[in-house]
Amino acid sequence: FNLQLWNNYFHLAVAFITQDSLQLENFSHAKYNKIQSKYGDMRRLIGFAIRDMWYKLGQNKICFIPGMVGPILEMTLIPEVELRKATIPIFFDMMLCEYQRTGEFKKFENEIILKLDHEVEGGRGDEHYMQLFESILMECAKQHPGICSLVESFVSLVKGLLERLLDYRAVMSDESKDNRMSCTVNLL
Fold first, then answer.
1. Distance between CA 119 and CA 117 in Å, rounded?
2. What does the pLDDT read at residue 165?
3. Mean of per-residue pLDDT scores for the chain
4. Band of the pLDDT at 182, cuts 50, 70, 90?
5. How far, in Å, CA of 129 to CA of 85, rounded?
6. Torsion sign (Cα): 150, 157, 57, 64
7. Residues 161, 113: contact at Cβ < 8 Å?
8. Secondary structure of residue 82 in the 3-state scheme
9. Coiled-coil region(s) at which residues (predicted)?
10. Rg, C-alpha atoms of the chain
11. 111 CB neighbour count, 10 Å cutoff
12. pLDDT at position 96 over 60
């Protein structure tokens, strides 16, 4: 097992998916349709490949926690529904992997909270992501009763944080200082 090779693969694939020139939702409708008809959404194909390769790591997955949490989060925040549905379950697998090794998933939890703040501040994330994140992780947790209550607490924590971060991002352009201050206090 060559850790550096796998690490390079995942980072390169995520860098490819997240490059600005592939963010189709930022293009005009005509340009979006032209690219879709000619090339399809390459982000989806690479995202599925990342997912498949993640599951092939076997017991070596633990080597990528928490290091790959940020890149995977960045990928799942791309506003493409099928990509999100395919890649959000990687988070549950990371939690399960760390839980099986240590009895908790604090490294994963701390890393995702840290990176989520950075990503939402950078303009990524939306209400739909929050709902999909919650439903997918809770569905995965139902299949593992031993970790279900921990996942439920984690999802509640992340959902609350994401709601506050999205509110904060929305009011930053607001003229009212009171709204901004109130949102900042809620976030803190």
1. 6
2. 87
3. 90
4. low
5. 10
6. negative
7. yes
8. helix
9. none
10. 18
11. 19
12. yes
Find the length of the chain. 188
Angle between the N-to-C axes of helices 145-171 and 106-121, in degrees from 0 to 180, rounded to the nearest 10: 20
Q: For the chain, which residues make up each domain, given as ranges?
A: 3-174
Question: How far apart (Å, rounded) are the C-alpha atoms in residues 6 and 28?
Answer: 36
Structure-block tokens of residue 122: 């950078």
pLDDT at 169: 76
Instruction: Flag the least confident range among 91-100, 109-118, 130-139, 179-188.
Output: 179-188
CA separation for the pair 55, 48 (Å, rounded): 11
Residue 15 corresponds to which tokens in the numbers above? 């860098």
3-state secondary structure of 55: helix
Q: Quote the Cα angle for 74-80-86, to 5°.
A: 75
Burial 72-89, CB ≥16 within 10 A → b, else e: bbbbbbbebeebbebbbb
**Type of residue numbered 92:** F
Helix (H, G, I), strand (E, B) or coil at 46: helix
Whether the pLDDT of residue 158 is over 80: the answer is: yes
Q: Six-digit token pair at 86?
A: 């395919």
Handedness of CA 53, 55, 59, 60 (dihedral sign): positive
